[in-house]
Amino acid sequence: MIIRPNHGFLSLLLAIQGSILPRVMPQILLIAGLGVVGLVLLDYFPGWLPGYSLAPFSILGLMLSLLLGFRNNASYARWWEARQQLGSLLVQARSLARLATSYLDGTPQQQASALRIILLLRGFSRVLLRSLRHPEIRGCLDDLLDGQEAAVVYQSRNPADTLLRMLSTEIATAHRTGLLSDILVTTFEARVTALADIQAACERLHNTPIPFAYMLLVHRTAYIFCFLLPFGLVGSTGTATPFISALVAYAFFGLDALSEELEEPFGERPNQLPLLAIERTLEINMLEALGLPTPEPLQPLNYRLS
Length: 306
Hints:
With 306 residues, the chain is mainly α. It has helices spanning 9-14, 21-44, 55-103, 108-131, 147-155, 159-176, 182-207, 212-237, 241-263, 275-289. The chain has one domain (22-44, 51-289). It is elongated. The termini are close together. The relative contact order is 0.18. It is found in: Cell membrane.
């Protein structure tokens, strides 16, 4: 995710880090090149270039703007929902850690149970966030669980859910041994259920893209429009055709590419969510709850927070 202070118009105009421009520059140059081809045909081979009315381009441009607007709204809604779910993950994890350290802080058995709950909570958060980017999570729990338990998690079809089951088992064990009352067990399990809801929502966003046919329609229409536009403009805009065509291509191709980034909020592109930074924040919160030394929060590198 790009975290960049607003230092004024010129700074934003010249910003490259986080801009969609590098991704769409080849398409922009291609459309500008077609504008140059249109100028050459108009000057040297005027009979080869039929005259086009701009009315069809106006109608097609309006239709394309609406399609891109709808797609951009759908993609941003996915991005924002993902950010809300990650915010809820922070809230629920902190709440469960606070409950564990507040109500299981008396006897050594209670303290051991609280430590176990927080270790499993750290493992769940770590596995969930990493699996949203990469399916391979082997090795990420070696500092939290013993070898046998870690192997069970690595071999399961849904590692995050396996850790939630371990967490519920620990809470049930604390209840059976008298470390937690009936009321407290209900409160603890409500937090675990909330974590399961967050996991399900993140998996839904990760596994269910915007319908392919809708994306294909927008993509094809944008390319056809931008390929034909220079030849429709050249008769009226003359030598400005390459620049105007490139500017329109930047707007349409840029929106298309940005929507593609926002559609997958858990990826590693500049405008996607900073899962590693959120994971580090959770680690800091959990270690603070145990009174242990904490690492430093991740900081943006060249305005980019991963």
